[in-house]
Fold:
Amino acid sequence: MKEYEIYIHIPFCVKKCAYCDFLSGPAGEEEMKRYVDALIQEIQAGTTPEGEAVSVFIGGGTPSILEVSLLERVMDTLYKTHTISPEAEITIEANPGTLHMDKLKAYRSMGINRLSIGLQSPREKELRMLGRIHSYEDFLESFYNARRAEFDNINIDLMMALPGQTADDWRENLDTIAALKSEHISAYSLIVEPGTPFAAKALALPDEDTEYLMYDDTERILSQWGCHQYEISNYALPGRECVHNTGYWIRRDYLGYGLGAASLCQNTRYTNTSDMRTYLTGDPGRASEHLTLQDAMAEQMFLGLRLTRGVSRTLFFKNFGRTPEQVYGKVIRKYTDLGFLETTDDHIRLTRPGIHVSNVIMSEFL
Ligand code: SF4
Structure:
């Protein structure tokens, strides 16, 4: 049966973090209600695809800011309009400070079976500097409540290479969080995005060598706790790799609903308007772009190389009727000779040194 994924965007947050350039921001109750009305209208108006959804990801923003009754309406609509696999991974992103026990129990009864908690750091100083709304204690309360509500699949988001952060600080952060034994950890380096409050500041960021060390320490420390690296920035206990994100890296079709959400269906990409006023009129303002064969093959390569197992040559052949070597032989040979790429039985993947120059290698497939 054909498999696809669903993404739902909830663009609301209590307040904007100092580094964030996501499509999100604070809003009043009335706006959230109108947004959910427009979202439901968009879901109902869409064409129901063949096959079944193997994952649903409710992302943001801070989806856990929504009243339970609003989220219930969204989930009811999804269940009525799509075939969702009984085994589907259904994730909601949540921030400490917006979760309480009743909400967590309500999520479980809606079929949500995975929680992705935005922590970023267990240090109060770092949380304040990032402009987060919560303390580490708030996070611990949310985490243990989630366990009590029988969430057995939890991701924790962490951020490294923060201003003033040392390699020792980061190692301690990792040990603190790994000891909680969540099933999944995402660890991204801070990127200072133009237009954010961070971009206007002179920040004492760790130098390149320190960041390199932090990255390698992440893999080393988390693997000691049984969390293996399966993607450039993602680590999981065996069998707990994120189905939704993996689908994105192998280019499974996905349907995105909500402000600014993107979809990929049979090599056509659709992108909704990022303008809230337009979206609230009930018009998702969807633009489409058909990907050329070259674009689709390049995406399969550079997204697949994000996975530590690499790009499946079988999948590439199934999708495009030729092997990666037939299309990108010169680039693959060049980086294999340099020790940055290697070929296993079915996969072409980055080596450990290759991961450190992944941006350069991936750009060669464009
Ligand atoms: S909670 Fe997340 S989406 Fe919201 S402002 Fe902070 S980083 Fe951005």
About this structure: The chain has two domains: 3-248, 294-366. The mean pLDDT is 96. The chain has 14 helices and 15 strands. The pocket of iron/sulfur cluster is lined by residues 13, 16-17, 20, 22, 24, 60-62, 95, 118 (CB under 6 Å).
